[in-house]
Amino acid sequence: MLCDNCKDRDSVVKLVQIVEGSPKELHLCEKCAAERGVETTVAAPPPELAKLLQNLQQQPLLAGGPASPAARDAVRCTFCSATLGDFRSTGRLGCAHCYGAFEGSLRDLLRRVHGSARHTGTRYEPPRPDALQRAVTLGELRDRLKRAIDSEQFELAADIRDRIRVLE
Amino acid sequence: MNLDLALLPDGGVSWLDASGDHADIVLSTRIRLARNVEGFAFTGRARDGERLRVLSQVRDAAGEVASLAHSVLLRVDELPAADRLLLHERHLVSRELAGLDAQHPVRSGAAVFLGPDVGVMVNEEDHLRLQTLRSGFGLPGAFTAVRQLDQELGSRIPYAFHDEFGFLTACPTNVGTGMRASVLIHLPGLVLTKEMSKVLASLQQMGLTYRGLYGEGSDVVGNFFQISNQTTLGRSEEELLEQLVRVVKTVIEREEDARRLLLRDAGYIIEDKVWRAYGTLRYARSLTFEEAMNYLSGVRLAVGLKLISGLSVYTLNKLLIFSQLAHLGHAEGRALTESEANLARARYVRQTLANEAAAQE
Question: What residues does each domain of chain A span?
Answer without folding.
Answer: 1-45, 48-114, 129-167
